[in-house]
Automatic annotation (TrEMBL), chains A, B:
This is Crp/Fnr family transcriptional regulator. Residues 148-219 form the HTH crp-type domain. The keyword Ribonucleoprotein does not apply. It comes from the Bacteria. CDD domains: CAP_ED. InterPro entries: cNMP-bd_dom, cNMP-bd_dom_sf, Env_Response_Regulators, HTH_CRP, RmlC-like_jellyroll, WH-like_DNA-bd_sf, WH_DNA-bd_sf. The keyword Transcription regulation applies. Residues 14-134 form the Cyclic nucleotide-binding domain. Keywords: DNA-binding, Transcription, Transcription regulation. It comes from Tenacibaculum tangerinum.
Amino acid sequence: MSKCEQCIVREFNSLKALTKEELIRVTGCKTSKIVKKGEVLFDEGEYINGIFCVKDGVCKVSKMSDNGRDQIIHLIKKGDIIGERSLINNEASNLKAIAVNDMEVCFIPKEEILRDLENNASFSMDILKKMANSLKEADDVIVDMAQKTVKQRLAATLLLLDAKFDKNENGSMNISLSREDIANIIGTATESAIRLLSEFKKKKLIDLKGKEIFINDIKALRELSEGF
Amino acid sequence: MSKCEQCIVREFNSLKALTKEELIRVTGCKTSKIVKKGEVLFDEGEYINGIFCVKDGVCKVSKMSDNGRDQIIHLIKKGDIIGERSLINNEASNLKAIAVNDMEVCFIPKEEILRDLENNASFSMDILKKMANSLKEADDVIVDMAQKTVKQRLAATLLLLDAKFDKNENGSMNISLSREDIANIIGTATESAIRLLSEFKKKKLIDLKGKEIFINDIKALRELSEGF
DNA sequence: CGATTGCTTGACCCCCATCAATCCTCGTGG
DNA sequence: CCACGAGGATTGATGGGGGTCAAGCAATCG
């Protein structure tokens, strides 16, 4: 089993605040796991009893709305940690996580993390900072959802994806979301998202080749998302 | 100056986790303040440099969207703490807070809180829990904003206000929001909110007497908010 | 190579944003 | 005490955004 002390991924998240001794203990109690594309990492209502550290791959984190449609709230990628919130307030997860492509994750059981939170102020402070930042981002999303048109939200989402994920060799975004996924991020019907995507393509803001998306005109997209 | 050790309000928020000695120090460095209805407690972009503990009154916390409308994201009331997020990630506030009625608040400077966060694991754990819970609530708001109609959101907001605030003697909700405020909570135009309110009144779900709002039929409102 | 799933486009219609006009309410000054 | 002005509340009219249903097309898979 690979050792946390030597894991590069750790450097990107709060686990970097752990001491060497703590990391060795984590190595001893963690489990690794492969999650195939489309598989459920955890579901709404499930007790996770620990946190996941994503070594590779991407998953979509969503919540079912009363009307029966999934709203995607987060995209989690390599280096991110997920599950810490349910762990902290000791509740079942309010969210569902599904792998967007094949993932490799490590699972660290609750007790170990709670112990570290108690004893390592620097670790808990880092978690605090991460959560404060997530809250700030959530504020932005709420405002966008409440005030922006679907077109603006699509433009903003494309920019966000462009910033968050790497490019393939040909310049397309290295994340394979279905049209439905995209619609579920911006909170609209799949057909609406499709229509707007092809409108953007017609205006040369983006290019579409099957599932691949190329961002051509960041500036225009930014103006669109801000409502010009 | 009143003493934090004897302040009842503290029992409702994370400050209850502080030790007696810490509370005495807080008493020594805190300042009290009266904020009149309509006055700004803090503005977007401002460095707060501490936290506010609300002894009395209510304030609306909002964020300006690109299109120039304020979106109200939180309503903060007696017993709540506000400002901890900007303090934790050491940034200017991304939100604006305006008093909805006359308020009485205590201000505790940053250094004191940071010191307590470092030294009192139970305090920082309590803050963590509060933030984890806020994130969960934010998820719900995002889903509602993205997926629900304006009518559903108004119903949900009325229920939320009903649950969060006390009643007056005559049974109306003890919070005086303008129609514009209500519209800015649910993220719609003022006229739309007004129209829906009078529709609800016609259907006997609520009653309106000037600014006062009476909730008549919780069950019907709940069904409405869930989309029946 | 069917068959299932996802993508795309068209048609239709309702919700809601916007503009405009009026009414109401309340605080201020004459 | 009243007049008046300003801001909020209300109602009407209108047009466009976007949700929904339906049908045709492409692609992926057993």
